[in-house]
Amino acid sequence: MKVIVIGAGVTGCAIARELCRSQYEVTVLEKASDLCEGTSKANSGIVHAGFDAVPGSLMARLNVRGSELMEPLSRELDFAYRRNGAFVLCFEKENEPRLQELKERGEKNGVKGLRILTGDEVRAMEPQVSDKVTAALRAPTSGIVCPFELTIALGENAAVNGADFRFNTAVTGIRRKDNGWTLETSKGEFEADIVINAAGVYADRIHNMVSEEKMEIIPRKGEYCLMDKKLGGLVDSTLFQLPTQYGKGVLVTPTVHGNLMVGPTAVDIPDKENTATTAEGMAELLQRGAKSVKNLPLNQIITSFTGLRAHESHDDFIIGEAAGAPGFIDAAGIASPGLSSAPAIGEYVAEIVQSIAPAEKKENFIGARTGIPHVAGMSPEALHALIEKDPAFANVICRCERVTEGEILAAIHRPLGATTLDGVKRRTRAGMGRCQAGFCSPSVVEILARELGKDPGEITKAGGESRFITGYDKEGLA
Fold first, then answer.
1. Whole-angstrom Cα distance, residue 387 to residue 390?
2. Is 188 helix (H, G, I), strand (E, B) or coil?
3. Is residue 471 part of a domain?
4. Confidence tier at 246 by pLDDT (50, 70, 90)
5. Rg of the chain, C-alpha, whole Å
């Protein structure tokens, strides 16, 4: 039974991994050059507790289930996760009843441990919270995760278990054939018995190729700024503000790697590729972030970025067979809390596939991902032993994040290994520190070229024509 998953973001990779537990022939088609090149690469990295979604919705059910799965999954697949808890901050006494509404909604969704605290109780736990906060909802099951590591871990594990990932393969058309589907792509045609649409902001275009009941995904643009690691301890919990019609609002949060992040804005736009940051967006972020946290240090920003959320007007996930298209399954409208829900979405879609075309479970499924080196977190004794085995782990390439040549080599040669600068960056954090790749990029290019058997001029930042070195030909610099 051939199953094709369209999209190699966190949703597509989670689905592919779950399908690989059974005797399906799984192929993942991705238009970009790597995993995690769309919405999954640019988000808050928050594992939401599940108090915000409407009770009874698919979003509520899968959010809570995904949050429950995330911690054991992080141990199984070796990616960074921390259950740091969250606050929803209220700044006006008259709005405090809305905290009670959120609490009751969360309890209906099955969220555990919710409680309402006074402003003074909040500041006792988080001293940098604004003096204007009158009360807050505490959600202890909220967490933070590295979205790159999560997506790559799911994808790698799917590949180890037999999933065939095809990158630079854009789906251009789909037609019904006998009892299955033919997919036209930029790399030729693919046949499938079942197709799963996990195409993010492009899921509507894929859906509309096969169904008369049309879908519209409106990209919701969110800008973020990331601050230096020395500020990572300014707050320990994720700080939300009371939500608006556009979502959970601007948050201030530590990251699992010790930075401080502020974001996102929320603006609906027509362009599915517009990930530009703006002066207006940054000004809004900093103004609204400073509402939550006292003395937010604006001079410690090391980078800014933009993500696009796949917003659909029904404000719920769209998961199931498309109308009039048997065997074509949508996993669409996966906006926030999509990252939190991804493990549960994988389970849910695999159940749908089993109901259409049952398959036996594999006896040899490999559930764990091991052997990922993390030099920056190693004890001196463990690092010494590693260097004795492989001296490449003594050669520091990225000074800001303390990433070694050994880690970069491992990232290149693992399943679905890195082929671009961004691919190395997301797998190892080389280039994510204070200098933002100003120091390490030439060395990473050199290592990629050597290991992939390419000329340095062929190495790209993120695939396509994003070459790192311009004016280069095979004879050297022109």
1. 5
2. strand
3. yes
4. low
5. 22
Q: List, in sequence order, the alpha helices (H) in 20-175.
A: 58-77, 96-109, 119-125, 147-160
pTM: 0.96
Residues tagged active-site:
48
Mean pLDDT of 379-389: 96
N- to C-terminal Cα separation, the chain: 51
Query: Is 426 within the bounds of a domain?
Result: yes
264 within 8 A of 281, measured Cβ to Cβ: no
pLDDT, tens digit (0-9, with 9 covering 90-100), for 165-185: 999 999 999 999 988 999 999
Range of the domain at 454: 375-477
44 with 305: CB under 8 angstroms? no
Q: Is the pLDDT of residue 477 over 60?
A: no
Structure token pair of residue 77 = 């697949």
> Does 35 map to a domain?
no
Residue 162 is encoded by which pair of tokens? 């037999």
| Number of compact structural domains in the chain | 1
Quote the CA–CA distance of 316 and 431 in Å, as a whole number: 36
The string of DSSP letters for 318-356 reads EEEEPTT-TTEEEEE---TTHHHHHHHHHHHHHHHHHHH
Considering the domain boundaries, does residue 306 fall inside one? no
pLDDT of residue 271 exceeding 60: yes
